[in-house]
UniProtKB/TrEMBL annotation:
Keywords, sorted A to Z: Carbohydrate metabolism, Cytoplasm, Hydrolase, Magnesium, Metal-binding
Amino acids binding Mg(2+) 1: E95, D117, L119
Gene: fbp
Protein name: Fructose-1,6-bisphosphatase class 1
Cofactor, free-text remark: Binds 2 magnesium ions per subunit.
All residue ranges annotated as the Fructose-1-6-bisphosphatase class 1 C-terminal domain in the record: 203-335
UniProt record, GO biological process: fructose 1,6-bisphosphate metabolic process; fructose 6-phosphate metabolic process; fructose metabolic process; gluconeogenesis; sucrose biosynthetic process
Subunit structure: Homotetramer.
Binding-site positions, substrate: D120, G121, S122, S123, N212
Biological source species: Massilia psychrophila
Amino acid sequence: MTSPHRLTLTQFLIEERRRFPHASGDFNSLILNVALACKSIARKVAFGALGAGQGDVGGAINVQGETQKEMDVVSNQVFLQVNEWCGCLAGMASEEMAEPYQIPDCYPKGKYLLVFDPLDGSSNIDVNVAVGSIFSVLRAPNGDAAVTEQDFLQAGASQVAAGYAVYGPATMLVLTVGNGVNGFTLDLELGEFMLTHPAMQVPPDTCEFAINASNSRFWEPPVKRYVDECMAGQTGGRCKDFNMRWIASMVAEAHRILMRGGVFLYPRDSKDASKPGRLRLLYEANPIGFIIEQAGGRASTGRLPVLDVKPTSLHQRIGLVFGSRNEVDRIERYHNDAQPTEMMNPLFNEHGLFRMPA
Ligand code: AFP
């Protein structure tokens, strides 16, 4: 029996480009550079305790106020170094940097912006659980001029491409260029990403949900209602049993949901009034939202499609619910139904402590 002919990522991108005869090739070059960065990070992560980069960076805190792992810093460096020289970028922005990154003068600049979380779920790294990288490609609104924060504040619907790499038992790169979602598995012998999961689709229904239940006392009523119903299982209104998962690595959760359906919630809650949600809009919610929607699923703030949100700052946080379409629709419906009840709670009303925009 002959093994199936599989396209490499490069071949796949060349085939995609044939649909756009006037394309310069810059975009393909950008995606291949991102893929190279992911391969390099995969290799570093795979060394585990034998390699450098385990542990915290001597108490360093990133712009999010979170403890930085050495691998966060190393992965950020890899993304910058691999992508700055390629001539297709006007600038970059990352979870690990307070300000946008300017392409050094020694390199040509290009028409795209790259936004990324270099190592999502890095709290899992010391315990050898899957982590990943997430990226989003936008058009630079001002050509190759020096970039400003404002340039990056584009709604998720205007992303040109988005993807993630998951560093699990196998390393995979999952990519959308706005024409469906394709998954590539890293062939360690060839050093190439091979197309193994063409046209990925999120099943519309599911019996699996993922939420950090330790936050339940801070949830808004619609989220509590949804989770209570799932927990009630067959004996409750949903008349079916649900399974719960929580990996604390959104990339790994998104990948599971792409493979077999499910719903993920990190909703806006009342835990910290200064943070309208845990996840970051530009380099977590938007790229994952774009991928999930391109695979036939849905991504929402709980109230409205996340890809419609106009960002107001580079590191903006937001509530995020994504996955199987019918479950996300249901959660949005519960939020809409709940408005009057919510308004009765003084903490959530118009003048309340936790009043927040979408
Ligand atoms: P990092 O990007 O800082 O590693 O954060 C990971 C994450 O944003 C996301 O991947 C998880 O879903 C979430 O945090 C886990 O949060 P909890 O600590 O509340 O479980």
